[in-house]
Structure formats: structure tokens, C-alpha cells
Amino acid sequence: MPEAPRVILCADDYAQAPGISEGILRLAGAGRLSATSAMVHMPGWAMDARRAVGLRDRMSLGLHLTLTHGAPLGPMPRLAPGGMFPPLGRLMKLALTGRLMRPEMRAEIAAEIARQLDAFEAEAGAPDHVDGHQHVHVLPGIAGPLLAAIRTRYAGRGVLLRDPHDRLKALIGRGSAVKAAFVGTLATGFAARARAAGAVTNEGFSGYSDFGPVPYAQEFPRFLKALGPRPMVMCHPGLGRDADDPIAARREEEFAHLMNLPGLPDWLWHPRRGPRGQIDWRGGGA
Predict the structure, then answer these.
(1) Catalytic residue among 12, 48, 128, 131
(2) pLDDT score of 277 more than 90
(3) What are 184-216's pLDDT values in tens digits?
(4) How many DSSP H helices and E strands does the chain contain?
(5) Looking at the predicted structure, is the pLDDT value of residue 1 above 80?
(6) Which residues 6+ apart lie within 8 Å of 89 measured at CB?
(7) In a domain, 2, yes or no
(8) Which of 176, 182, 229 is nearest to 207 (CA)?
(9) What whole-number distance in Å separates Cα of residue 119 and Cα of residue 45?
(10) Can 12 be counted among the known catalytic residues?
(11) 3-class DSSP state for residue 114?
């Protein structure tokens, strides 16, 4: 059990598949999650949103901006010419070679960000937080349009933007340090830009996994080492075995561990909401 501060435990990939949503809902209902991030371009979002909104008194509900899985909500002839998002490797290459910064590509990305935010709002109102599937929200050519949308749409709401960066010293001993350091390097400066856009950020981030042979029960305690002052830990629980999901077995393992871990609800962060329904991220949580 970690010492204070409380941990923001966020389950990614809500609405990706029915079993994933079911596992997340059960954990949230038991007080064993702080937040979940939704893939609103997936067919199950509208139905799954109703159930998640009903648990919003005990968890943050946010957008999991997706540009590497499934189909976009509108035409993207340059990024997704065949009607499907590119794999992460392709998107990374486009980002790191500057091609996502070209005006026509930025316009496509900005339009898809707007569509995904619209889809979220249509079912659940303004998001409490925003992050990215496979952390794409911090990439060059994506971070800029996203921050512009947050500044324009949610001024004064204190939406939290996930910062996947942490101190290099904190990464030692957690596992998957190379992966965490690489993503953290890509996110350098993102937190300052997010705050300039009027958003809040977590301070400290963990949960990186290679989804390999190390059991989740051994990995999870490592994620709680050297926590920051507003720490977020990502997780990927779920139920069922979606044939298209390469980490389906691991999702069940994560679900079982989080559902049965003694004392977990007592040291997790849980939201307090203001009169307009917005979360007080700086207040420490319930």
C-alpha cells in the first residue's frame, strides 16, 4: 500500500469491446478505479457511455483519443486513405519526420480530434480528462491541435490532460523503463503546454508494461514506487477474450488482481465535483 498522495488509477480502452467495458464497469462499481478513458469511435460507445455516466460520481470519465486503432469518424484521406487508422509505427514515423506538421495533415487531425470530442460530448457531456491511445496525444502534429481544442472548448473547466512523462530516477525499478523513458522523452514539455492551455496534468506516471511473462501481480507493486505528487497509474483490465485483442488474456489477469487486491479502494483517488460537475483535480480527491 503506497503512502499519500492518493493514486489516480485509470483504465484505458473503455468501449473498445464489450468485455473490456464490462470489466472496467465492475471495477469502478466496486470503487477499484479512479478513472476510465473511452474510445468513442468504436461501435459500442453510445451504449457503454450510458453505463459509465451512471458511475461518474465515483470516477473520472474521459476521452481516449485514438489514431492507431479502428476507423476514423470522418474522412482522413492522408492519414487513413484506406479508411482505417495506421498502426503506431507508421504514425510515429510520420510524426517524427515532421509530416504530421504539414498544414493539410494538421487540418485532418484537428478535424478528427473535434469529431471524437463531439462524439464524447453527445453521450457524456464535457470530458473530465483526455489522453491518447498508445500516448499519441503527445506526438508532434497531434499535441498542437489537441491543445488548441482543449483551450477553445473547455476553458475554465480544469480538464486533466495525461502527461506520460516521469522523472528518470522514478523509472528505475518499475520495469519497462526503456519504454517509459522513450514515451517520456516524446512528452518532454507537454505538461507545460497543457497548463498554458488551461488544463491540469498529473504529476508522476506509471503503468508501462511489455505485457510479457511477468505476472501483473508482480508488476503492479512496481508501478507504485517513487510516486509523484499527483500520480497516475494506467491499467488495461477487461473480461472476455476478443480474438482481435492481442492482450486479452492479460486484461483478465489485471481485472482479477485489481478486483481482489486488499485495501485498494482506500488508497485510490476518487473525484470530488464542483457545482457545474467539474472535477477539482487539485483538491486531492475523496
Answers:
(1) 12
(2) no
(3) 999 999 999 999 999 999 999 999 998 889 999
(4) 11, 8
(5) no
(6) none
(7) no
(8) 176
(9) 9
(10) yes
(11) helix
Give the chain's domain count.
Answer: 1
Torsion of Cα atoms, 214 then 222 then 20 then 44, to 10° = -130
Evaluate whether 88 touches 155 at the Cβ level (below 8 Å): no
pLDDT at 20 over 90: yes
Within-domain flag for 1? no
The 10s digit of each residue's pLDDT in 169-188 is 888 878 778 888 899 999 99
Grid coordinates representing 197 are 492551455
Residue 195 lies in a domain: yes
Pull the grid cell for residue 227. Answer: 510516486
Q: Cell 497548463 belongs to which residue? A: 195
| C-alpha grid cell, residue 233 | 497509474
Res 195: pLDDT = 95
Say if 111 falls within a structural domain: yes
CATH at 242: 3.20.20.370
Beta sheet of 8-14, edge-to-edge order:
200-201, 160-161, 129-132, 60-65, 35-38, 8-14, 232-235, 205-206
Tell me how far apart the alpha carbons of residues 54 and 62 are, in angstroms, rounded to a whole number.
14
Residue-number span of the structural domain to which 249 is assigned: 8-283
**Per-residue pLDDT reduced to its tens digit, 71-121:** 999 999 999 999 999 999 999 999 999 999 999 999 999 999 999 999 999
Q: How far apart are CA 220 and CA 95, in angstroms?
A: 31
